[in-house]
Automatic annotation (TrEMBL):
Protein name stated in the entry: Peptidase M23
Residues in M23ase beta-sheet core domain copies: 90-188
Organism: Dyadobacter luteus
A Pfam family that the UniProt record links to this protein: Peptidase_M23
GO molecular function annotations of the record: metalloendopeptidase activity
Lineage per the UniProt record: Bacteria, Pseudomonadati, Bacteroidota, Cytophagia, Cytophagales
InterPro entries for this protein: Cell_wall_metabolism_enzyme, Dup_hybrid_motif, M23ase_b-sheet_dom
Length: 226
């Protein structure tokens, strides 16, 4: 039984992972967003302008959302469609859509578990994974689509204090060639993985991965995601 969700709910508060001072707006990347279906998602510059200029009203808002969302934005990305009979389209984290260079912070005390430059089209790009302890329970948080400079000076075991900056949101193409955003994910068990963990799964694997990766809003506590 995974007790992590209840443990996170009981915590009085966490530091902000992103702290722009802007209001949040929940974004929809499922088939229900019909204007999205008309976009050429392979053109990252055009896709980015659609998000920040239209969906986020010229950058007035910080975009959030995506946990357990059945997304259409992966249909044009071969990285997620390798298995045609079992494609990956269920998002396991929360995306925070903000301009490149925006600082990213750890929500609580942490040590660096691992890091990597997952340098494939549609992948995470620069990635940091932290390990945390709460009441004797170990769990992990993943930060994807960071800047390349976020990986400088890192080493396994490096300690961070709650609210300390760990990196910045990266820009395309080095962030996996996505419009700038942070992929934030909670992971109960990393197994033997280092520097990477699935952030999108197939419908058939949905239950397993949602159990392993509980709702990131247990930490983020963003009203628009409740």
């Amino acid at each position: 039984m995974n007790i992590l969700p209840d443990l996170l709910r009981q915590q009085p508060g966490f530091a902000n992972v992103i702290n722009t001072g802007k209001p949040f707006r929940k974004l929809d990347f499922s088939a229900a967003n019909t204007p999205l279906l008309k976009q050429d998602l392979t053109d990252t510059d055009s896709f980015s302008k659609y998000i920040f200029d239209e969906m986020l009203s010229q950058g007035t808002y910080t975009g959030v959302g995506g946990y357990n969302e059945n997304r259409v934005i992966y249909l044009q990305r071969a990285h997620f469609m390798k298995e045609e009979q079992n494609p990956r389209n269920i998002h396991l984290g929360v995306d925070i859509w903000e301009r490149a260079g925006e600082p990213v912070y750890t929500p609580l005390d942490a040590a660096l578990h691992s890091f990597a430059f997952n340098n494939h089209l549609g992948d995470y790009g620069p990635t940091i994974i932290l390990t945390h302890q709460l009441n004797g329970i170990e769990f992990f948080t993943l930060y994807g689509h960071l800047s390349e400079s976020s990986l400088l000076g890192l080493y396994v075991g490096k300690e961070f204090r709650k609210g300390e900056k760990i990196g910045e949101i990266g820009n395309y193409p080095h962030n996996g060639d996505w419009p700038p955003h942070l992929h934030f994910q909670i992971i109960a068990d990393m197994g033997n993985r280092e520097g990477d963990f699935p952030g999108v799964c197939s419908i058939g694997d949905r239950l397993h991965f949602l159990t392993t990766c509980p709702d990131p809003n247990l930490i983020l506590r963003i009203d628009e995601l409740k």
